[in-house]
Amino acid sequence: MIEFKILKKSKKSKARIGLLKTEHGTLETPALVPVATQAVVKTLTSEEVKETKTQILICNSFYLHLRPGEEVIEKSGGLHKFMNWSGPLMTDSGGFQVFSWGFGRDFGVGKVLKAKKKEKIVLGQNPKSIKVEKDGVWFFSPFDGKKIFWRPEDSIRIQEKLGPDIIFTFDECTPPLADYQYTKKSLLKTHAWAKICLKEKKSKQALFGIVQGGKYEDLRRESAKFIGSLPFDGFGIGGEFGQNKKRMKRMIELVNSFLPPEKPRHLLGIGYLEDISLLVESGCDLFDCNVPTHYARRGIAFTSEGKIDLTKKIFLKKKEPLDKKCSCFVCQNYRQNYISHLLRVKEITAFKLLTFHNLYFFNSYLEKIRQRIKNE
Fold this sequence. Notes:
The protein has 376 residues and is an alpha/beta fold. It has helices at residues 46-51, 61-66, 70-75, 79-82, 95-100, 103-107, 152-162, 180-200, 217-228, 245-258, 273-281, 291-296, 329-333, 336-344, 349-375, and strands spanning 3-9, 16-22, 25-29, 31-34, 57-60, 89-92, 131-132, 137-140, 147-150, 166-168, 206-211, 234-237, 265-267, 286-289, 300-303, 306-309. Helix 10 (245-258) links the parallel strand 12 (234-237) and strand 13 (265-267).
């Protein structure tokens, strides 16, 4: 189980400072939850991740079910021992794969549309590669083609065997192209699955219910009221919120206004650096995002002066650190020209150095935000 204590509320926004206590340690919120999909933050050891000031990680239950299997991890003593991570851990439920392997892949879209599209997903429509039914979702394994029926009961059973501190209910993460009627029916399914997940859970792990509803305010309100009325230990906010970031802030604030204020709120899958202040001011305590690590593997470093692309030839002439204001070991010991050279000759050490720096930079940014709230 977990304990959540709010230490300070901002006088200028809905931001708050909290302490989230788990069996594997206590973290201070608001906090970034880096993504460790297959029980690893790509290119880093667990010890190195800890040195980036990371407090908690999230792993993917669906991928771990496929490889190596929850039984292997359970017999290894659970995820913490399996990946040698001593801090708090979350697992997601597989709900995001319903989107990413389904309509997301079909239409080439993410949770946030980068450009307007004419296509609409309507009631009764199914993705090409998966099939969403009343009781669960049919998947095909990307590794061996095996057909898998994933139900809320399966998601809970598997997450319990994996053994993280916090688990999530199984939901349908609706795509941004879904029309109102599709999103409404999907929401009712997500709510029914949430009740099943509550009934099925037998462990002492904390269970977070997920609010959906897409970009429709009335559905978001309906979902927040319903999920917020159930005895969850915390809450996830999933899906998409429309193209406008001002609208996204308003929608997240709307959802949080209907959730029990004494419980933690986790925003699923959103966390660009420029969005972090907005998310915190909207009342979110946690948010997972692969931006720091994903961008690092493409040669991008986040700095106090903006993003820099180390794959560009100009950086071979730069003898300064990635960020003169950063105290991470990368900035203290390596220079832009060296990292740019490693990228250009395709040496994997470049990805390690950039991943470490980006995580350290993001976590340091959150430290400053927490301090600012404390001083308000």
